[in-house]
Write the structure tokens for this entry.
Amino acid sequence: MKTVFRMMALLLSFGILQSCSDDDKKMNVPSLEVTPANIAGVWKLSEWNNGTEVHEDVYCYIVFERRDMVFKMYQNVNSMYARCITGDFSIEKDEYEGYIISGTYDFQLFDDAWSHSYIVTELTADGSMVWVAQDDENNVCKYVRCDAVPEDIVNESEPIK
């Protein structure tokens, strides 16, 4: 009878251990404060439209410079050609929505603001951040930190003026 109880205790222990998933671990990753210093550097778009991975031929890199609050974006998202887009950005903290990032482009003739302001829902120390459009909760982008924009992309991108 003791053997049966030991086996049941052992099986119960294994069951408890198996019930902890990776999703539970991710929930415990603390989010950093969204500041220019914490987002400074190079970020690559890895997912958009609420979890769809970015196709391998499509890219968007954003380089944030904290000191001057400017960005440089290398992308081919809505173009067949590589483009370098520059501008400035701002971060504000809303009491209800959290940290909001918005920006303006240097090249637009009429409306130079980004098409959306984004709520930064996650900024983790392991190098990822998630943006949700303030006016469209289905517009979700995930960025991952990277070392640099690939040199071939920089070379083929001309800044828009």
About this structure: Strands lie at 41-48, 52-53, 60-65, 70-75, 83-94, 98-105, 118-124, 128-133, 136-146, 158-159. The chain has a mean pLDDT of 83. The helical segments are 2-18, 22-27, 36-39, 151-156.
